[in-house]
Amino acid sequence: MAEKRPPRALEPKDKPFWEGCAKGELLIQKCGKCGHRPWPVVQECEQCGSDALTFERVSGNGKLASWCTFERPYYGDLMPVPYDTILVELEEGPWFISNPLGFANAEAELGMPVKVAFIDCEDQHGAYRLPVFERA
Amino acid sequence: MADHGMTPMPPSLREHSRKASIVGVGETDYAKDYAAERKRPEGWEPPTIDDLCKLAFDRAVADAGIDASEIDALALHYTFGGPEPEEMTRHLGISPEKAWVNGHIFAGPLPNIVGRIISGEVKTVAMLFGIGNRSSGRQFGGNTYSAGMAGPASYYYFHPWGWSSQAAHWAMMAQRYFAKFGKREEDLGHVPMIVRQHAGRNDNAIMQKPFTIDEYMASRYIVRPLHLFDICLVNDGAVCLIVTTADRARDMPKTPVDIAGWSEAYIEQDKFRVMVDERLRPQIQAAGNEALAMADLSIDDIGHFEGYDVASIHLVNQIEGFGFTPDGTGIDFAQDGQITLGGRIPTNIAGGNMSANYMQGWGQVPEIVRQLRGEGGARQIDGLNTSLSAMTQTDCVHPVIYTRGD
To answer: Which among A68, A56, A60 has a CA at the least distance from the CA of A114?
Structure first.
């Protein structure tokens, strides 16, 4: 059953990312001019200012860069506390906020290899698939 | 450079150093107002920004020892809105030649006003900051922020993962710091514990009761690994600074506090890596060095630091970043007594944002002025000539250097 989650940012620029997730693909922008990989989604490259950005699939592999556990309920009943969040350093460079799947922050170690997985979720915009990370 | 929504600052030119001075400061009764808001006795009404600003203004004018009619400009600063300039001048009972809204947090306003004073646009300015974020019930996380609102993308973009709040930014930094440098929560706890001890010597600090490391460990988490005591307060209040030319300041009753240097630096890309891994070190170093060069000083000349302790770990980032102690040693440095009276760099000596008041960077300037004048009382730093403040957020830093003007 789809988990109810707080709303995605869904401006036109963000849509390709979520369409990729629907197909089980993690798409991150790549600048056609300087090769930079920005995340989150931008209109113009944060490194060189170019708008020649395309979405390209990344491997989904990374390592754990940090983690924290929410103990104060910022989202009311939508995200009952405590719950874990992680920061993943993707193989291709960007650092990605996510949730752990199949492990808890209590077992987390700096540099631990992880890989992307997708879970069924739902927000006010509809059903979608959310990228999370499990042990590689 | 991209528009970051901060008050524009003039360049850090050495010939602009020590050309303007703070001659008066005023602030509201943070501790009393906070206690009243918590108790909410019968008939209690939240303070208005108008009244908070009026009190800070009247106190600053009295502190400067001038007549309010000598103020020719009123620069207003509100983070979450406030009265229009015409309404505020009427409320304050003054008729300055110029009154306008000049920004919000303490990231640019003071250098901006110094620039206007140097250019001759204004002469004696009352800079006012007012905020009612506690009585309005503001929450710093969750759906408070969304796409299309002011604020960095990291404030709203990660809602689907349940990740938001400024506290979560600091928590990610702290967890990586612990893993990287072999530190634990109970080590970090010394930083807020020391800042709280400082607040114990400040009658207007909201939280003055000291705590032990055991009490710190027993306190609730906000975003693990950060506890309640690691995070800044949320309160209502106002701050007023009276700023004029350095020449004119010499004819005023109080010892002038000269604005000697300033700078700013932003994370322009890869925010999460720079913020969590580098902890803004490149930005803090670049801006710190530029401000010091403008003031013709070195970091060894700085005798007092008021850092933006919006979270304990972020104060560590700034102590290390400016070069008071090497990378990864800030917690040890604090535990060794180096950030308190008698140490290398007395820091947040009145209780900072974690224990005294949270005025988005403005609340620490009155303490700098008191310290440089020698009015610090029980918490006075001996022989002080130079102070540094830094407004340091998740993606930018704005240092200002102040020198005793006599």
So the answer is: A60
